[in-house]
Every structure is written in C-alpha cells, then in structure tokens.
C-alpha cells in the first residue's frame, strides 16, 4: 500500500520530502498498532439484477453494510477501552492488500482499522451545532 500511496502523491506533485513524511507517518501508524482489521465487501450472495440502476443500488447497500459493521466495531473497541483509527488506504491499493493477505479475488478491501491501547485520553472534540448539519422539516 505504501508504494502505491507514494506513487499517487508523487503524481499529485508533492515534494519528495512531503511524500516521505506522509507515507512514513502512515506506515508507522500501521506498524505500531497491536492489531489491524481489514474490512472487505463481497457480492457473493447478493441479489442480481438485469438493470444498472438496481445493480448499483445493491452495490451501495453492500458498501453501506460494510461501513456500518466497521462503525459498530469502532464503538465496541471504544467500549473496551481500545483506541481505533479508520484508514481508507485499502481503497487506493486493493490489489496490494488482496495479494498481501491472500484474500479471495471477489473480496474488495474497503477500509483498515488499527487497534491498540491509547497512550492518553484525547480531549473531546468540539461538535458542530446540529443546525449546521441537519435540515429540520
């Protein structure tokens, strides 16, 4: 994943120093984590449709299900006192993830969650007011 991340950043015009720092920070976060979970989607067993509209809806439902499962995993980790971080790197390097972990060809890596015991309790983040993000009718 790091090699693909590096190539993408270089193609975006980042300097060698910026690329090295950003890739290094990401690799360090992954390697220092005591545990890691790759969330994958598979369309095996999903409904098949002849039209693109429903095919896309089925794909979206599958991806939503994977995301919801990951969100529940984050909540469960927090309830156990673990720190966790959702990383989207597998979306940008699915082949590398699939090969490294010898995943079935029909599994699509969607996210990476790293887990560990937090070194400190982070301060609560300020939340945006609901009226900035919700439309009330």
Short description:
With 137 residues, this protein is of the alpha+beta class. 52% of the residues lie in helices and 15% in strands.
Descriptive account of the structure:
Helices cover 52% and strands 15% of the residues. It has six helices and three strands. The mean pLDDT is 94. The relative contact order is 0.18. It has a three-stranded antiparallel sheet with strand order 1-3-2, sandwiched between helices. The longest helix has 28 residues. It folds into two domains: 32 residues, no CATH class; 85 residues, NADH Oxidase. The chain is an alpha+beta fold.
3D shape: globular
The number of strands is 3
What is the correct CATH architecture of the largest domain? 3-Layer(aba) Sandwich
Could you please say which CATH topology of the largest domain applies here?
A: NADH Oxidase
| Class inferred from helices and paired strands | alpha+beta
How is the secondary structure organized here?
Blueprint: H1 2-11, H2 16-32, E1 35-41, H3 52-79, E2 83-87, H4 89-92, H5 94-101, E3 108-116, H6 130-133
Antiparallel strand pairs: 1-3, 2-3
Helix pairs in contact: 1-2
Jot down its keywords:
3 strands, 3-stranded antiparallel β-sheet, NADH Oxidase, globular, alpha+beta, 6 helices
């Amino acid at each position: 994943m790091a090699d693909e991340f590096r190539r993408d950043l270089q193609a975006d015009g980042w300097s060698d120093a910026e690329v090295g720092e950003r890739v290094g920070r990401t690799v360090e976060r992954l390697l220092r984590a005591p545990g890691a979970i790759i969330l994958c989607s598979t369309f095996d067993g999903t409904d098949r449709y002849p039209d693109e509209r429903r095919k896309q809806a089925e794909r979206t439902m599958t991806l939503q299900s994977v995301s919801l499962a990951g969100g529940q995993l984050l909540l469960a980790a927090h309830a156990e006192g673990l720190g966790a971080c959702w990383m989207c790197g597998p979306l940008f390097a699915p082949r590398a993830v699939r090969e490294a972990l010898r995943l079935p060809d029909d599994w699509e890596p969607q996210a990476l969650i790293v887990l560990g015991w937090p070194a400190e309790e982070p301060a609560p983040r300020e939340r945006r007011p609901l009226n900035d993000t919700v439309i009330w009718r």
